[in-house]
Structure formats: C-alpha cells, structure tokens
Fold:
Amino acid sequence: MTSYLKSDPTRDGFFGDYGADGDIHGFRTMVLTDEAGEPAPVHTVASGLDYPGIGPEHAYLYRTKRANYTHANDAEALDAFYKLSRHEGIIPALESAHAVAFAMREAANNPGKSILINLSGRGDKDIDYVTETYGFGA
Structure:
C-alpha cells in the first residue's frame, strides 16, 4: 500500500470521503460537489491544490484501495513551511508543505523510522505571498 497526501476536506479540497464520482473537464473522476451536484469552490494557500477534483488515476487507486490518502490543512502546511525553511534552509513550495506537515505528524508517531518526501516546485515563488499574508511566523 502506498500513502499519498491531499489537503484538508473542510476547506482545502480533500476528496477522500467527501468526494463523489463525477465528470469534470472531460474525464470521470472523484469531484467535490456542492448541493446542486456541481463542482464545489475550493480554496487553499497552495494554488496548485485549488481544484475540486483529482486525476482519474488517483481516483482509481483510491477506489481500489491500492493507495491511502490523507490530509494536512493550511495551518499545518504553513507551520511546516516555516519549520523546514528555518531548520533545514529549504523553502518548500506550499503544495509540498502539505506533505511536509503530514510527514512531521507521522514522524512524531513513528520515532526511528524514515519518511521520504518529494519536494516538487520551489518555495521561493511563494515566500512573498506567505510573508505578506501571514508574516514571518513564530
């Protein structure tokens, strides 16, 4: 079983148990929908995650239980963004900061184990947005 990360269902576009089968942009997948069954508006600090659906491959892996998906919310991602930047000198993209947040949570529950994170993108493109919107962190 492979574990994947997606963001928080309350606000950040996580589909998991909140998504439904649907069609979006010409393909069948899992989609967050509103009361009318239309794609729901989603928002997250990571613009690359602002999408109400997932790729059909991920929907298939989820439905067949070949992948386990979890979440990290924006507050956790921002905390991870600041911590990784300060402690390791690596500025993660906000999308990847969600994965870092999940890994930090898992590391606390699994001492002595290794966790591999793929940091895609570059955080330097997000740093102005983060500091102007949220300050320099605690």
